[in-house]
UniProtKB/TrEMBL annotation:
One of its GO terms (molecular function) is sodium:proton antiporter activity. The chain crosses the membrane at residues 12-36, 48-68, 74-94. Signal peptide: none annotated. It comes from the Bacteria. It comes from Neoaquamicrobium microcysteis. It holds the Pfam family PhaG_MnhG_YufB. This is Cation:proton antiporter. Residues 104-128 are annotated as: Disordered. Keywords: Membrane, Transmembrane, Transmembrane helix.
Amino acid sequence: MSHAADLPVWAAIVVAVFLLIGAGLALIGSFGFYRLRSFYDRIHAPTLGTSWGTAAIVMASMFCFTVLQSRPVIHEILIGIFVTITTPVTLMLLGRAALYRDRSEGSPEVPAMDPADGVLEEGVQVEE
């Protein structure tokens, strides 16, 4: 049995708007994931869609259950916090691992590491 029938129309509209915004952001992130060519470009698109899309969906859930239960329901904030923190960190680690792998394989598409301060070329020191 669904409790959605107990939700007032004005609250259902607000929840629907938040859900559409969240789903739209997730869809934009997936289009970016499909459209962008390289792995390094692709790691940016899902971050935005996941972070902001999840935030909108969590807001819809909080609002819906706050209205239905006639009390503030905020435990969904933990879900939003964990997703917002872990998604960018995970994608950053994936990007660094891929960069390390591509540099160790000598891929021509990846820029070389910056030389250390005071070194122009290999074996040549700069006097400071």
